[in-house]
Amino acid sequence: MTTYGMLIDIDRCTGCYNCFLSCKDEYCGNNYEGYSAPQPEFNQYWMDIREIERGKYPKVKVDYIPIPCMQCKNAPCEKAALDGAVYRREDGIVMIDPVKAKGQNQIVTACPYRVIFWNEELELPQKCTFCAHGLDHGWKMPRCVEACPVDALVFGDLDDPNSEISKLKDSGKYERLNSEYALNTRVQYLNLPKRFIAGEVVLADQPDECAEGVTVSLKQDDKAVSTSTTNVYGDFEFDGLKKNVEYTVVVEKKGYGSVECVANTRVDVNLGEIELRPE
Ligand code: SF4
Ligand code: SF4
Fold first, then answer.
1. The pLDDT of residue 56 is above 90
2. Is 94 in the pocket of ligand 1 (CB under 6 A)?
3. CA quadruple 30, 116, 155, 79: dihedral positive or negative?
4. Are 247 and 230 within 8 A, CB to CB?
């Protein structure tokens, strides 16, 4: 058996849009009978790159999240379709039948990931097929995966324990986007954006120097979660934190009084300047 899946590493993705463009190149104006009707040039993003901005100036982070069809095992689009217009192949790829699905607009709204697009001209719901037409003719991967210059996308057979994708997935570090949907998606992510707490340390007796190498610890319920040191600019940052948690940040340097700050990750937090005074 083969079950296709994709792993996406957000830390690697630079937002170059090569995957999106290769998808356009593959599908715009091209009809793959039995697989997909031509993708319109505009307003369809079978590989959608969503830009996420976190924090506030001057501590701002930008991440790009490539979002294809998640190839859900429990696919709501399949349930919403009439007459078997959406079906799952033996290899796990969820397909929209370009003939049977004509006029079935309800399929578009059934997808919580918003990756199905309505083609006004053809009256057809359309989406990513993992390039099923190519895989059936010997391709090893979809065009988007091939086009990624930084290997942010990994594609392969989840049933093969020796495949790269299986080995990576076995690391246990990957997670599903919007896992609360509980759709058992075959696309999973590494380094999805979480919350961060950042700040800058200054020394009261050396206002013109950057406070490099100051120890900064993060605690939750009085237990140490992580420790870091300030960089050459006196900055520190803890990323990948859970949402809605109250943390305590402890800043310490020998010869100076320590400072504690409380930060709640309802949002990303910039603690600003934290001043240490000599003891
Ligand atoms: S991501 Fe959306 S379109 Fe893809 S299988 Fe899941 S519900 Fe269907
Ligand atoms: S091609 Fe790769 S790096 Fe570029 S946007 Fe797509 S996933 Fe990100």
1. no
2. yes
3. negative
4. no
Residue 153 CA, closest ligand 2 atom number:
7
Residue nearest (by alpha carbon) to ligand 1 atom 6: 72
Range of the structural domain that residue 227 is part of: 195-276
Split into its structural domains, the chain has a count of 2
| 30-55 confidence digits (pLDDT tens) | 999 999 999 999 999 999 999 999 99
CA dist., res. 235 & res. 233, Å (int): 5
Quick one: 185 and 57 in the same domain?
yes
Q: For residues 244 and 261, give the distance between their C-alpha atoms in angstroms, rounded to a whole number.
A: 16
SS3 239: strand
Mean pLDDT of 162-184: 96
Domain boundary among 140, 166, 190: 190
For residues 47 and 101, membership in a common domain is answered with yes
Ligand 2: residue whose CA is nearest its atom 1: 148
Identify whether residues 121 and 21 lie together within a single domain. yes
Locate the ligand 1 atom nearest the alpha carbon of residue 187 and give its number: 1
Question: Is pLDDT of 178 > 90?
Answer: yes
pTM of the model: 0.91
Ligand 2 binding residues, C-beta < 6 A = 13-19, 49, 64, 66, 147-148, 150, 152-153
